[in-house]
Structures are given as structure tokens and as C-alpha cells.
Amino acid sequence: MLSYLIFTLTLGGIYALLALSLNLIWGGVGMVNLGLAGFFAVGAYASALVALAGVPLPIAMLLACLIGAAAGLLATFATIRLRGDYLAIVTLGFAEVVRMVALNERWLTRGSDGVSGIPAPFRAELGVDGFNLLYLALVSVIVLGVFLTLRRLDLSPFGRVLKAIREDQELATFAGKSVTRFKMQTFALSAAIAGLAGALYGHFQTYISPDHFQPLITIYIFLAVTAGGVGRPVGALAGAYLVVFFLEATRFLGELFTVLEPGQVAAIREILVGLALLCVLHLRPQGILPERIAPAPKPETSV
Question: What is the pLDDT of residues 96-117, one digit of tens each?
Fold first, then answer.
């Protein structure tokens, strides 16, 4: 039971990074990125392949961030003039392109067989239980560091410019802000965080395949950010852990309802995810921890 709890917390930390990544681009600058699973996959494959080539793990994870950021810049060039539904469709297409490349380019990604034997830090020396505890600590420290960085960024002048772009892009342009530059920087940083999450996932599982990066992951993260509170890093963090525990709790439906087959249990789990999203949108449309809007300063009155 303890091992399962450690696994759940570790997976929650990885999902928390994805939620922070999405919250930065969606809650910060207002760009709907449905290609999150694609950047997640880019980071996982990049780190796994270079680590298998003999590159030390810290450098492999750093490369995953850089390659993820480069992929984010590439996606930004294709979507910079798009908004709303059009942006969502193009980014979703990007994620599917990444998954199809991973599925078909066997020379690079080993196709549907996946990449196995991905190095894991100190797994042989510590054993499974020791490695899981170490990895949970590593993921937790990284999540805390990213959260504090994004929280500080959110309160900085850069974060205020992002919110101004989110609320009124034309007004921000009129105020002299380079909207294109801010969008590119934000998208690259968001993709780098998603790439880091992918690297951590690959080295934790020691095996990845295209099936691990289905669009459903993006739906889970959207549910996490929506449930936690769009635009607030602590909301994204809380929402991610809630979603992971919800998903893991529904795994036991087969034990409660023994008449159900595994395929039916999987289908019911996805239905419950959709119902949970509808309930959150109906009951708490602003999320559990909604964004705090600073009150406008009162005008000075002369005596």
C-alpha cells in the first residue's frame, strides 16, 4: 500500500508540472494549448534517447527542457496569429503529429515497441522501494522549485503584462508591449516545463511508448487546472493532485463491481472524468482556488 501511495504521489507531481505548464500559457496569456501531450512526449523521448546514448541524467533532463522549449517556439510560429478554437485545433494537431512520428519513425523512437531500459537514478543501488522514495523527493523538490518560480513570475511585471495580453491584446499592444515576443517567451517556457515533466516520467517508468501520450492526458490536465483555478499556480498544483487521486481511486471500480469487465471499467473511468469536469464547471466555474483579482486603486480626493 505504501509503494502504491508513493507511486501516486510521484505521478501527481509529474501531472502538477504539466498543470503548471498549462496554467502559465492558458491562465497567464490566454492561449489554449491542446498540444500539451505532444510537448510531454518530446521531453520524454528526448531525455530517454540521449540518456541511453550515455549522456548523464541531469544533462539529459536539461536537454529535454531545451528541446521542449524549441518545440514550443516552433509551435508558436505556426499559431502566433491564431486565437480561441483555431489555436486549440492547431495545437491538438501538433500533439498528434508528435505521437504519429513516435509511432512510425522506428529508427528514432522504436515505434510501437517503445523505448525500454531507460536509465533511472540509483535504482540498482537503492532497490525498488528506495528508488521510489528518492524519486518522489526529487519530483517534489522540482515541483516546488517550478511552483515558486512561476508564483514569483506571476506577481512580477512580466506576469502583469501576460494578464494584460490575456484580457485585451490590442490594448496591451497600444500600451507599447510586444505581444508576439511575450507570447513566444511564455509558450517556450511552458513547453520547457512540459518537457521536463516528460523526462521525469520516462526515467520513472523506465519505459515509454506512443500509447503513453494520448490526447486524454491533455484532458486530464485541463480538468486539473479548471478544478484548481485558472490563472493561479497554487490552484493548478492542487488540481493536479486531486485529479490523480481521483483517477487512481476509480481503478478500484472493478473490485467493487465484479460483474464489470476491464474494458468496461476503463470506459466508466473516462465517463467519470467527463462528469467530474461538468460538475466542476457547474458548481465552481472559477475553480477551488480562483485567481485573486487585485482591487483597483481608489482615486485620490482633494480636500
Answer: 999 999 999 999 899 989 999 9
Phi, psi of 33 (to 5 degrees): -105, 105
Q: What is the pLDDT of residues 195-215, one digit of tens each?
A: 999 999 999 999 999 999 998
- The kind and range of the H/E element at 207 are strand 207-208
Categorise residue 247: left if φ over 0, alpha if ψ from -120 to 50, beta otherwise.
alpha
Find out whether 108 and 48 touch, Cβ atoms under 8 Å.
no
* One-character DSSP codes across 143-191: HHHHHHHHHHHHHSHHHHHHHHHHH-HHHHHHTT--HHHHHHHHHHHHH
- At 122 the pLDDT is 81
* Cα–Cα dist 118/54, whole Å: 11
Give 148 or 286, the one with higher predicted confidence: 148
* Residues whose CB falls within 8 Å of the CB of residue 209, separated by 6 or more in sequence, listed in order: 102, 112, 113, 114, 115
Task: Please tell me the pTM assigned to this model.
Answer: 0.91
At 57 the three-state DSSP class reads helix
pLDDT: which is higher, 65 or 281: 65
Which residues are bridge partners to 208 per DSSP? Answer: 115
- Between CA 118 and CA 51 the distance in angstroms is 7
